[in-house]
Every structure is written in C-alpha cells, then in structure tokens.
Write a structure and sequence with these properties.
Layout lengths: L6 H24 L2 E7 L3 E3 L2 E3 L4 E6 L2 E7 L3 E7 L2 E9 L6 E9 L6 E5 H5 L4 H4 E3 L6 H6 L20
Parallel strand pairs: 1-9
Antiparallel strand pairs: 1-6, 2-3, 4-5, 4-7, 7-8, 9-10
C-alpha cells in the first residue's frame, strides 16, 4: 500500500520522540542551575532567637566559596537539585574549628535560594532555614523610575501641544 507509512517507520518516529523527551527530562533535573546564598545572621523562629557562630567557612566540592563572620552573606552557583557543602565553624574568636558536612535538596521552583546557616545547624525545619532570594531595587533605582499615572499620556501626542 502506497499511501500509508509502514510500521517500521512509525516505530522509529515514536522511539525518536521518546528519546528526545527522556533527554529533556534528564537535562531539566541535571542541568538546573541555582544561586545559593549563605547567611550567618540571627534568625527568630517561633519566638526563639538563633544566633550564628563567630565565623563559618563554606566549602563546596573542596573549594572555599565564602567565609562569613556574624551577620554576613556569601554565595555560590551550583547545578543540579542536590547540594552538599562542608562548614568549618568557629564558635568564638580564636576558638577551635569543627567541621560539619551538610547536604540538602534544592527546590525546583527557586532560582535564588537563601540558606540561614545558624537555623540549618540548629536542626530547624526547611521552611525556617531556606527561603527564596527576591532582589529589591536600590534607592537610586527607585528615584530614577518615572511613575506614569495616565496610561494614555504621551501616546497620542503628535507635537500638537508644543509651542513654537
């Protein structure tokens, strides 16, 4: 029969579509990039205050990505949904260091993720130590922004209002 595609051709097309979908799903999981911010800041949760140690050094894949004193923030970028880091913690200036390994899954729906290290080290739930980073515009950017109150203002001006 000339008008109908043969079964072999249909099976090859279906197999090609399945392979493309499988590759897309794998790339979505493996190739998802995140910016992870680390906070060594005081956190209040359920009426209790969690203070950070004197300093925390954050290492990802054996590389130092941040050294945070009390109240500071650092960052790194990572690929994939699983994130692990080594934390080298000094409770007080000149004190002994202790090393803690922490691993956690990163949510699909967040690009910028803030991890509050004192809350993580205290064993609080994920909603306490993890939040989404939402950048706020600087005061300078807010001053430069022009606020238009009339949606049609200036759209239909063809030079009729200009004085000569």
């Amino acid at each position: 029969m000339k008008g109908q595609p043969d079964k072999k051709r249909i099976l090859i097309r279906i197999a090609a579509i399945i392979v493309v979908v499988a590759i897309a799903a794998a790339m979505f999981v493996i190739g998802r990039g995140h910016t992870v911010y680390f906070d060594n800041k005081v956190l209040e949760y359920n009426g209790q205050e969690y203070k950070g140690p004197y300093s925390i050094e954050v290492q990802v894949d054996g590389e130092k990505v941040a050294k945070l004193k009390d109240g500071e923030r650092g960052m790194t970028t990572t690929m994939g949904q699983n994130f692990s880091m080594d934390l080298i913690i000094k409770e007080e200036k000149g004190g002994e260091e202790k090393k803690v390994r922490a691993g956690l899954p990163l949510p699909y729906n967040m690009d910028g993720i803030i991890i509050n290290l004192p809350a993580l080290l205290s064993g609080l739930p994920e909603d306490a130590y993890m939040s989404e980073f939402i950048p706020t515009p600087s005061d300078e950017e807010l001053e430069d922004e022009e606020v238009v109150t009339d949606e049609m203002e200036g759209l239909m001006n063809f030079g009729e209002d200009e004085e000569q």
